[in-house]
Design brief:
Structural class of chain A: mainly beta
Strand content of chain A: over 45%
Number of strands of chain A: 11
Helix content of chain B: under 10%
Largest sheet of chain B: 6 strands, mixed
Order of helices and strands of chain A: EEEEEEEEEEE
Number of helices of chain B: 0
Radius of gyration of chain B: 13 Å
Radius of gyration of chain A: 13 Å
Oligomer: heterodimer
Number of strands of chain B: 9
Order of helices and strands of chain B: EEEEEEEEE
């Protein structure tokens, strides 16, 4: 069965960086885009980025340009999302999700809580 | 890229129909048939309900349907049931190859 397993919760100081991993299984790693979506406490969903696992090409929302880096390691079928210059506004649950059909997302990771606090 | 606009809350009695709107611009909702809808229950990851405006994935009840006119998309839930309570989000692809979510709508079954 399809699963996306993410790395565990993180607590970071303001100004630091965080790197969250997402390991899909149950399908061919290179067949689907991976997207990152975050949700601040009590708030709505926010799309952050997509990455093409085959090529490594990626695109992020304009508000994250310059501080969001998407990478992948095809040898271990894992996607990474690294966000730098953290502020308290970045405290959120970060989800990876698989692209499906032309513009949707079907399977989601369990979410990774990132807390930014001094 | 601004979030798509959804009503904060919509409510209805069991058996009724409700509709949730999702308003964007010609750069997102109006620019392609890419709108999808997600249901989210507290503490859970979202679940895909509708893709490409009006397509239901297998396993999703046919009580859920979608439509679009111009820059506004809509999700209709017919025969409202208690299990339909939750938060609903629309999302759209944009002309600059990004995505944008709606502000979210809390559905309450009275």
């Amino acid at each position: 069965q399809v699963q996306l397993v993410q790395s565990g919760a993180e607590v970071k100081d303001p100004g630091a960086s965080v790197k969250v991993s997402c390991k899909p299984s149950g399908y061919t790693f290179t067949d689907h885009y991976i997207h990152w979506v975050r949700q601040a406490p009590g708030q709505g969903l926010e799309w952050m980025s997509w990455i093409i696992p085959n090529s490594g090409d990626s695109k992020c929302a304009q508000r994250f340009q310059g501080r969001l880096t998407m990478t992948r390691d095809t040898s271990i079928s894992t996607i990474y999302m690294e966000l730098s210059g953290l502020t308290s506004d970045d405290t959120a649950i970060y989800y990876c999700t698989r692209g499906k059909y032309r513009y949707a997302y079907d399977y989601w990771g369990q979410g990774t809580l990132v807390t930014v606090s001094s | 890229q601004s979030a798509l606009t959804q009503p904060a809350s919509v409510s209805g009695s069991p058996g009724q129909s409700i509709a949730i709107s999702c308003t964007g611009t010609s750069n997102d909702v109006g620019g392609s048939n890419s709108v999808s809808w997600y249901q989210q229950h507290p503490g859970k990851a979202p679940t895909l309900m509708i893709h490409e405006v009006n397509n239901r994935p297998s396993g999703v009840s046919d009580r859920f349907s979608g439509s679009k006119s111009g820059n506004t998309a809509s999700l209709t839930i017919s025969g409202l049931q208690a299990e339909d309570e939750g938060d609903y989000y629309c999302t759209s692809y944009t002309t600059i190859k990004t995505y944008v979510f709606g502000t979210g709508t809390k559905v309450t079954v009275l």
